[in-house]
Structures are given as C-alpha cells and as structure tokens.
Write a structure and sequence with these properties.
Chain A is mainly alpha-helical and about 240 residues long. Helix content of chain A is about 50%, strand content about 5%. Chains A and B meet through helix 4, helix 5, helix 6, helix 7 and helix 8 of A and helix 4, helix 5, helix 6, helix 7 and helix 8 of B.
Amino acid sequence: MLATPVGTYAALAALMAPYLKPGAILTDVGSVKGQVLKEVGPHVPPGVHFIPGHPVAGTEQSGPEAGFAELFDGRWCILTPPPGMDPAAIETLKLFWQRCGSDVEIMDAKHHDLVLAITSHVPHLIAYNIVGTAADMETVIQSEVIKFSASGFRDFTRIAASDPTMWRDIFLNNREAVLEMLGRFNEDLAALQRAVRWGDGDALFNLFTRTRAIRRSIIAAGQDTPAPNFGRSGTTPGRR
Amino acid sequence: MLATPVGTYAALAALMAPYLKPGAILTDVGSVKGQVLKEVGPHVPPGVHFIPGHPVAGTEQSGPEAGFAELFDGRWCILTPPPGMDPAAIETLKLFWQRCGSDVEIMDAKHHDLVLAITSHVPHLIAYNIVGTAADMETVIQSEVIKFSASGFRDFTRIAASDPTMWRDIFLNNREAVLEMLGRFNEDLAALQRAVRWGDGDALFNLFTRTRAIRRSIIAAGQDTPAPNFGRSGTTPGRR
C-alpha cells in the first residue's frame, strides 16, 4: 500500500512513458485509485494497458523486510481498469495476482476510494487521532496510558504506528471520500455522545449489539479469526 | 471487567452486608471504580475492608470459557482503596493479585476512572461507533466493508464485538470521565479533519510521526509485542 504527494504520479508517468512498449500492462499497488488514474492516464502511450491495482493486505509495518510469503493468501486484490480496457489485459493481471495467492475483484476507481475510505482510511485517521489525544495528556497520565494500554488502547497504537509518509499521502490523495465518511462518523459519534450524557442505556445497548453482526460476517468471510486478539493464525510462518 | 446499571451495586451491597464478618476483605473486578465506591461504601459493616479492584486484562470475549491460565501474567491490577484503609488489608489483596500473575498499582478511584476513560472506554466507544457507521452504509458497500476489512477496519470490529451489556454499564457508570475525554478527542479530530480538507500534509505527517513514540513505549513496557497484528505471543497456550 503506497501513495505519493499529489502531482508525483504524473511526473513519474511522464518519465516512464517513452520506455513503455505497446502491449505492456502498467499497474500500481497504491491505496488510492482515482488520483493515480487521473494523473497517469494521460501519459500512457497508445497500446499500453494501464490498470491500477490495490492488494488489500499488509500489516502496520512497511518495506521489503515486512513482507512474508503468505501475505496475499486469502486476501483481496482490487483492480480498477478504466472504461474500455482490453479484457485480455485485465485477465492477465488478474492471473498474476491469483498466482500470488490473492482473490481478485474488479471495480470502478471512484467506488474503490469510497469503500477504502470507510474500511481503511477513516479507521487509521481515528486511531492516529486518539493516540495523539493520549500523547497530549499531562505527563503522569501519559505514563499510565502506556502501562494500562492492554485495556483497548494498545490496538489503536498498533494501527497508528503505520508509515507516516504513506498515510499523509493517502489522505492528501483521497480527500473527498475521507471527508464524506468522516462526516458520517462524526454525526454518529455525536448521537452516541448524547446517549452517554443522558444515560440512554437502550441506545448504547442497541448499537453495541448491532456491531457484533458485522464482526461475525468478517469471520465468516475468512478475513479474521475468531481467536481473541489475533488477526491471523498464530501459526503462520514468518509472523512470530 | 464487569459493570452494572447505576444503583445495582447499592442493592447488592445491602443484600450482602449482613453476612460479612469483621476483618473480611471485600473487593470487586469492575471497570469503573468511583461509582462502586460511592454505592457500596455506605453499606459495608464496620471492620470490613472494602477495596475496589480492576484487573486490566482480558480479551473481547467474556464469560468463564474466555478465561485462560496466563490471563493476568504481566498485566496490571489496579486497587483503589478509599482513604484511611487498613494497610494490612491492602497488602493481603495485593498479594492475592500478585499470585495470580498480576503487577499491582494503587490509585485513587477518580483517577482510575479518568485513565481508563482514555485507555479503554473512549477507544471502545469509537470502535463501536465506526462499525455502526459502516453497518448503516448502503447494502452493496456493507458487503464490501466485510470483504475488504483486512485494511484496518477488522481490528475495530474485534473491539466492537465486546459484551454489549457490560459496555453499556461502563458508559452509564463513568459518564463524566468519558465525556471529558471524548471532548478532547473531538477537538483533535476537528483539527485533523481541517488538515485533510486544506491539504495540510505537514500537520498530518507530524501527528503520524508523534504517535509512533507511544507505540514504542507500549512495546518497551511489555504490554504488546512488536510482531505485526499480534497482541500476545502466538505461542501462548490456550489462545489458538
């Protein structure tokens, strides 16, 4: 999962363009798809197939050393070919990702950015935010935050330890969808805050019950294990 | 970690009081300490030592079957004795928790509730909230949220799968501290939202860098492992 400052994709594409042979498939693995399509598209020479891609896999760590052989197993890779793309080129790229262990999904770039805003970008923003709020506490409380982090906070710090450069660029490149989803999140949080203030136990209980159904669906879809505190099987090689 | 509707502690204490022998130590394991002290305190017979306690350990699962022998190993148990408590009684309870594998910390009940609001209660409220926001999405997106949850959302659903009754009661019992911390979180999120809207990459980068220091401190304090996606060693017995 990568992203770059707005405008960098275009500059890179302009540099690469003269060396792309007709018939070549050009792809990427970034977390935001609309911006890369907009910037790179105009530079792609005739006969070259540009199909943006996004393997939805990874951990909070980055760089070559964070890789492991099973990284893509049972995870989804999303391809966002522009309208009119050669079906044979899509099929070839799809096969590439399937051979890496991924399942492949095709969708529109704009839709991808909206779905990822709610499943990935806003969750990361919120995790960064609460860890920042805690870091700003008075010193005595800050040391206690670390000590007693096992009560929930810990999981947020893991997410908030993701690469700062990559995440800055994701938010700069997917601004609209992030703001749209953040708006929904804020509305819902205001209602929840009001329920806490007025002691509306039923409203709290109803939400807390409803969210369990989503969790069960995620486990059923093979995207997490039911074992407490584990995102992957503890026996996966290379992940101890 | 347990909590009960406001008033239940008092009713329970009134029922128990006649059967408590002088010299007995009375304690609990709830997540909120101010309310239990306020409700139970007046019912405790003379000579009985009431010392509220909170083992900061557990997973998103609850009930006897969610227990395992190492649950308290290397985790903290917080005791919140009221002023003037017999030091020998505190020492006895401390020893009990140490023999269960816990480290023990003594603090004021009000301070406990503030620290836990930021390390546990607000993180849970936020996790419940974003999973609720996603659950309210249009059907097509909701199924995609499940499919592509490996990108960050998954970790929030794990937290948001915690027991609804217990968490309703935690928010009802720790209202003031939760609202105080939620206020800080909201202020910070508004600033972050503004940075996204105006493309202030430096503000984003600075926060995202600062949050890594907290993560490193938590790993150094032995409250999490540096292994990606793991809250505990994958080799802990009983946790597969």
